[in-house]
Design goal:
- The structure is a single chain.
- The protein is about 30% helix and about 30% strand.
- By secondary structure, the chain is α+β, with helices and mostly antiparallel strands.
- Strands 1, 2, 3, 4, 5, 6, 7 and 8 form an 8-stranded mixed sheet that branches.
């Protein structure tokens, strides 16, 4: 009896640190900036899905900053990029197609969104005003642009 109690205590002592590490694993987003070709919103969604990812959804200022930094590090700040933001559901509200949730955090350029016929969200590249770089703009979903796929990974 004493041996089994000691065995249980020993086993618990050995496994507790391992269990703690498993529980502490973080899930992070990895961004993949696709610049091989410019495509419309629909093709960008399809391409990301075809490689097991989603078109990027941006849920917070921290995430927006992280993405902006990656765009700058890769030297792609002059490019426009599709996000998964759209109001294609027909209810007039912006939603992230990639994750099926409403757009709550926003990073619109001054005066945007500006056109009810432009139903998709694009991250604008440098357009002369550094304060407006990597801000959002509503755009026609048929417009062609580069795009960003995202994938959730364990760290």
């Amino acid at each position: 009896m004493k041996l089994s109690i000691i065995s249980c205590i020993l086993l618990f002592t050995l496994l507790t640190p391992i269990w703690g590490r498993v529980r502490e694993q973080k899930i992070i987003k990895k961004y993949h900036l696709i610049t091989l070709a410019e495509v419309n919103f629909y093709k960008a969604v399809g391409f990301c899905r075809s490689i097991g990812m989603h078109l990027v959804s941006i849920s917070s200022e921290e995430e927006s900053e992280r993405l902006t930094q990656q765009i700058k590090i890769e030297g792609l700040e002059a490019n426009d990029f599709w996000t998964s933001g759209s109001k294609l559901a027909g209810n007039g509200t912006w939603e992230w197609v990639g994750i099926g949730k409403p757009v709550i955090f926003t990073n619109w350029s001054t005066g945007e969104p500006s056109n009810p016929d432009e139903q998709c969200i694009i991250i604008k590249g440098n357009s002369g005003d550094p304060n407006e770089a990597q801000k959002w703009n509503d755009a026609s979903c048929d417009q062609k642009s580069h795009f960003i796929c995202e994938k959730y990974e364990r760290k």
